[in-house]
Design goal:
By secondary structure, this protein is mainly alpha-helical. The chain contains two helices and no strands.
């Protein structure tokens, strides 16, 4: 082979390598940017998950309180309290003493 052909081949090889290096750099940059975006999204989702778990715990506590209130409202004692306070009912042998300032 002549020197001119060798030089042309080397130039072509160096152009090919340059293109490959350029593509690899672009690929690495794209992967890095996407990784950064996914990391930020992951942190936001973790915060949201923590907030939702906290809300879920408070709702479970509220559910327990409502269940206890429901049990209490089914008792005879609750019915008597409502009858006395709201309806003014008393047992036949019961005497009510009210203060005069009312």
């Amino acid at each position: 082979m002549s020197r001119k052909r060798r030089r042309k081949k080397r130039k072509q090889n160096s152009k090919g390598i340059s293109i490959i290096v350029f593509v690899v750099i672009i690929f690495c940059a794209t992967v890095g940017i996407r990784t950064y975006a996914l990391k930020n999204q992951s942190e936001e989702l973790a915060k949201r998950q923590a907030a939702l778990e906290k809300q879920m715990e408070s709702e479970e506590q509220r559910t327990k309180e409502l269940e206890e209130l429901e049990k209490y409202m089914k008792t005879k004692k609750y019915v008597e309290e409502v009858a006395k306070e709201k309806l003014g009912l008393v047992y036949p042998d019961e005497i009510l003493i009210e203060p005069e300032n009312k």
